[in-house]
Amino acid sequence: MLSPQQYNRYTEILKIVPDDPGEEVKFYTKLMKNNEQFKKTDRDFETWKNDYVVPWSPLFDIAIVLLYVFFALTFQTTKMAMFHNFNTIFDNYFMGDADEDDDGLTYIYFKSEFVEIVKNVSELFFTFTDSFPAQSNFTRSSNLTATLIEKGKQNSVSYFCQENASEASEIASAAVQTLNFKELLLEVDYLIEEFTEKTESLITVKYSMSFKDVDNLGIIEWRSKFKKTEVQYIGTTMFIDALHNEVFPIAILFVDAFALLITISRFMTFIKFAQKYSKENYVSFAKSFLWNVNGWEFFNLFYQSLTLVTIIIYILIVDPNFGGERWLLFLLGCSAFIHSLGLFRYLKMKPELWMVARITGRSLSKSCIFAAGFIPTYIGFVFMGISFFGYFCNVFKGFLRTIKVLFSIFHSDIVMDTEELVKEAAVCPDWLIYTYIFAWTNLTNGIIINSTISFVECTIDFLIGAKWKKYGRPNVT
């Protein structure tokens, strides 16, 4: 008589053990239906839980995310702080107490005022070096460059020194008299020198002022822009700068390389098993491979490879001007974000956390589908707000601004402020204002929020029912 069947999950063999010790143990491989082929398990987690093997790949992923955090902190406390401080100093000096609207923009409404501002700003570009609040050597490294942009014409570039800086106002005076005026751009480069015992640092700053015509209305939009910061070291680089620029990226590179090697070795195991299984069970290699590999493994390979490529690019081109490489900042941010998402899989360690993760994922997918269907209504309210109030109220003066205002009302942030601003400038009856804001507030806060709550409740019921069904018990809820 044979005892119950025993399944060895690691050798993929069905073993039948007889009760009589004298009988032969029988092994069957082709009669077996491998459960792992149809239920994609997380191999790292299963090995950790069942065999008590150290899960190096998860630990490496956690270490990489922590190194990303330290790298971001060092960059934030050095590069970003310097950039923001310079920008604040320049804006306060050149723009002073200029009046700003709700968007933080400054508008010039009169031609004489525009010409006078251009004249004053042109002179300030040359006197700024005497007022800059720094003990380091601060000098101007270029003359004033004035670029006149007109419609249908080539850009006109003029250069001014300190003696004739006031003549830049003549360009502004002639420009506003024509209908082709589009923008006037003023730029100057500055140089800051800092000396230590072993190094000399040269910081080049490019600052610009732009005066742009707004939609051919004769209104000038006045903006300042801190365009570029370059840092060059002469001599031995200080250790603290090397720490900020290189230590954490190199640490990320080494840890990620080890993690990627472990992931690749795991994929090699999957490939060998898939080849063997496909030959013995007469299925294609692709099906055998996809049956055996969890989807998280592909995502794991992707974000580890992305981190490796991004860090290598950074180390190859890293220099003190790292803040100027905006595309690399974007790539690093995306890489760190995607790598952080990779930790999501390890919520399986606790069933309660994994339940919350599944609820969040399924609810978000359903909510996104509902939000996509709500977009036409959203756009309809945007056009309605522009049509009703856009001509006389600054709150609804444009498409993108109206989208932001309605989105803020959706979160109940500026409901009363919006109502008061519209009423102050309104030339339409109050009942129209109240009806519009009341309808949008109730539609978003009432229907959308309650619908989202319903999605979450339905998802919870589904997951609880699936769990009861898994254990062969009826759902008592």
TrEMBL record:
KW tRNA processing (keyword) present: no
One annotated Gene Ontology cellular component of this protein: membrane
Residue stretches spanning the membrane: 53-75, 247-268, 289-315, 327-347, 368-392
An annotated Gene Ontology molecular function: NAADP-sensitive calcium-release channel activity
Stored InterPro entries: Mucolipin
UniProt KW keywords: Membrane, Transmembrane, Transmembrane helix
This protein's name: Polycystin cation channel PKD1/PKD2 domain-containing protein
Organism encoding this protein: Trichomonas vaginalis (strain ATCC PRA-98 / G3)
